Known about the structure:
This protein is α+β, with helices and mostly antiparallel strands. It is about 40% helix and about 15% strand.
Amino acid sequence: MKALDELTFDNRFARLGDAFSTHVLPEPIDAPRVVVASDAAMALLDLDPAVAQDPVFAQLFGGHTLWADAEPRAMVYSGHQFGSYNPQLGDGRGLLLGEVYNDAGEHWDLHLKGAGMTPYSRMGDGRAVLRSSIREFLASEALHALGIPSSRALCVIGSDTPVWRETQERAAMVLRLAPSHVRFGHFEYFYYTKRPEQQKQLGEHVLAMHFAECLEQPEPYLAMFREIVERNAELIAKWQAYGFCHGVMNTDNMSILGITFDFGPFAFLDDFDANFVCNHSDHEGRYSFSNQVPIGQWNLSALAQALTPFISVEALRETLGLFLPLYQAHYTDLMRRRLGLTTAEDSDQHLIETLLQRMQGSSIDYTLFFRRLGDLPAEQAVAQLRNEFVDLKGFDEWAAQYVARVAREGVSDESARRDRMHAVNPLYILRNYLAQKAIDAAQAGDYSEVQRLHDVLTQPFTEQPGMEAYAERPPEWGKHLEISCSS
Ligand code: AMP
Ligand code: MG
């Protein structure tokens, strides 16, 4: 276990030079205090969790002081936002403080979000508000606990610094961890600004640092692109299987590592709705829940375009063609497991699709449906769940198929079936209204609810005594919260 001053830095991205990022010092926030910290994220840096109580912790992650070996830098990138190319983006309010390597030999980017203005701030103030920082923290750690790849969050630091959004709010900072902060938009930036030398430098950096195994392939860039396609297919399959809606799948928010990245107005589904749009600025529903799959492919094709200097168009096309079948295979596999099935039958995809059709419009809580399906033997479980469906005949048809399907597998041990299903079907999920209650308390100065919610969500599959309230369906007011897109 390390103390805060024992971290070892090796700032590989910073060494790429000024064409890739700009040196900027964090602008401190007033009266910094720890809102919440993640022991699990601290463990990634070998940090003793007790360091969160050290006054230096809030100073460091509130931008007041820095390690001597840190090299804070704002990265430059561009990207496609809502389908249109924006030629100039970059870290407008976040700084890569440096890369720390841990005892296991892994490198972790330390990225401080809300650290003040940078050359890429455009019209923004360089700040992040408390509510959006809490949401990013909770989501990163909750997704990770669900087994969904994500950037991680070490802590949220609150402050007295005023910031203006729709009303006056308080600034906060979140310390984000990821093995890399390179986005699809990094490649797009050097491609569209026609800087082949630097694009090659970026490509070689990413290959060597993050896709070293691809260097052994005859065409390393193609192997890397294939790996990115595979990882994104798997990531989006997990989002769809667990009802996660990202909300802003612009290519500047897509990680080359295939991890969930850059949290805005995201949401987990409460009631199942394939057409759910969590981002209120997304008037056309470009990033609706079900559109995440074709948009994932669209984003990969934007990346492919930026990689045309390295890879032939035919090879890129062929590799892009792998996305949908890979996605479908992962998704079907995950959903089979959520349904408690241990074998594969061709008709399973149809069984899954019809279930979702039956759920649509019936106000079925997506998370609790699967949890309850595993509580009891299949026939009893569907009998209990049926009353929630509007189209009883439709549900009965599905339920008969499901019960027959389970019977074909044969369940010799009902408690093993329940344990197996509960291990993949969470009881606790980061519902918007739960986050909002924790945020309301934090804005009034009480951080205990954020901490409790974080604790509950670190073990989403395990029933926790006394935490029943966190496993309930949202109240009616909690289903229709407008999550502000300003952050
Ligand atoms: P996002 O929608 O959060 O992914 O942000 C898109 C771009 O806007 C990124 O380049 C951000 O760094 C930048 N940005 C977002 N909010 C601010 C802000 N308050 N100040 C400066 N830049 C910002
Ligand atoms: Mg972003």
